[in-house]
Amino acid sequence: MRLCDRVLPEVLYLPLRKAGTWGAVLLMPVQRRHSLDYLRIALRREPKLVDVYRHFLAVCEALVLRLRVADGLYHRCELGEGSEAFGAWLASSRPAMLGTFHIGNSDLTGFMLAGQARRRVHLVRLRVGNSDDTDSLAARFGDLLHFVWVNESSELLFALKEAGLSGDTVALQCDRPDYSSRSETFEFLGSPRRFPFTIYHLALIFERPVILSIGIPAGRAVSTVIASPAFEPLAGEDRREALARGRAHFKAFLCRVEDYLRREPYQWLNFQPL
Amino acid sequence: MPDPLISKLKQLIVETLRLEDIVPEEIPDNEPLVGGGLSLDSIDALELVVRLEKEFGIKIATSEEAKSALASVAALGSYIRARADPSRLPS
Fold it and tell me: Does residue A179 share a domain with residue A152?
């Protein structure tokens, strides 16, 4: 993929990607089924095969962009409307817990934070077989990025502790409960669904704010960051009340995520059962 | 007479993890803290470790160390006694 991107002009490479995407749709039955299940809910109609193709193509394009950014392509993140808290936090030197979702260019947000804002970030990620893009992006941003692998490290808790106590920012994905110690149910896309909720517990333990965000495509070299207000732990607050505030904070952002997905359903890149 | 460090640890566990239905004295000395009768999970363990490090000025560096330290209140007491500055231990 990377080689093609380097040697082929876009006029040839784009049709090749589209053909390859059709191949993936046909050869990846599990992902195709998850895509169909998700699209049925998001589109509110029975999806066609072309819908699945568009969904797969969105994943392909997000991956290509990550590889290009890793190879040095100029790309910047801009703050979207209603994301002032994220801007205020970026301008400060405070560490935070950043929660994000498998949507659009969200994966790039952590890297752009490191590259654009020179913030040190610990990214909590699931290591999968094809993590070349992640490895390359990490190499590009060097010491500003650290990875905590949830499925590889027997030292996960301690890696989290070190990250939490380091004064650096920690970024976690908030849409796959599989590896989450604490998860909770929220209404999303018409039904109650489980989401990881560990980020709020960590925020209370390490006394730092939670900001949720997604990065959405906004042109050739730009992603727009849509972010929540900050959830701030309050000194002396009862834990149950703090977690109730956390639930309301998460729920409010999920509503914004859902609004976006209703408009851009193919940008949900989480090919796991909802 | 109960060991003051063990009593303090039980108090800290209840207080840090907000175990409202548990009286510190009821926590057995030799029962596993994580996965035992207290039903603590990994986030509880993390919160406890962060608090213990602050309280006693120690550093629990690996999950192996944590596993042995959190094996029971008695094990935690021995772990802390061996590593903490004596001035930070209750007398």
Answer: yes
Mutate to test the interface with B, among A150, A180, A205, A240 (most CBs of B within 10 A): A205
Residue count of chain A: 274
| ipTM, 2 dp | 0.88
- In degrees rounded to 5, what are phi and psi of residue A71? -85, 5
Residues in B closer than 8 angstroms to A182, CB to CB, are 41, 43
Nearest CA in chain A to B51: A205
* Dist. CA B53–CA B30, nearest whole Å: 21
Domains defined along chain B, listed by start: 4-88 (1.10.1200.10)
Picking from A67, A83, A112, the residue at the C-terminal end of a domain is A67
Give a yes or no: residue A88 inside a domain: yes
Which residue range(s) make up the domain with A121? Answer: 75-267
Q: What is the pLDDT of residues B22-81, one digit of tens each?
A: 999 999 999 988 877 888 888 898 899 999 999 999 998 777 888 889 999 999 999 999
Strand residues in A138-268 grouped as ranges (E): 145-149, 169-173, 183-188, 191-196, 210-217, 222-227
Q: pTM for the complete prediction?
A: 0.90
| Distance (Å, whole) CA A65 – CA B54 | 43
Nearest alpha carbon to residue A94 among A201, A159, A168: A168
pLDDT, tens digit, 9 for 90 and up, residues A105-124: 998 887 677 677 788 888 88
| Same domain? A26 vs A127 | no
Beta-sheet pairing, A183-188 with A191-196: antiparallel
Q: Is A198 within 8 Å of B43 when comparing Cβ atoms? A: yes
Instruction: Check CB contact of B29 with chain A, cutoff 8 Å.
Output: no
- Cβ proximity of B11 and B24 under 8 Å: yes
Asked if A103 and A79 sit in the same domain, the reply is yes
B54 shares contact with chain A (CB less than 8 Å): no
Longest CA–CA span in chain B (Å) reads: 33
Q: Do residues A151 and A127 touch, judged by C-beta distance below 8 A?
A: yes
Q: Do residues A15 and A93 share a domain? A: no
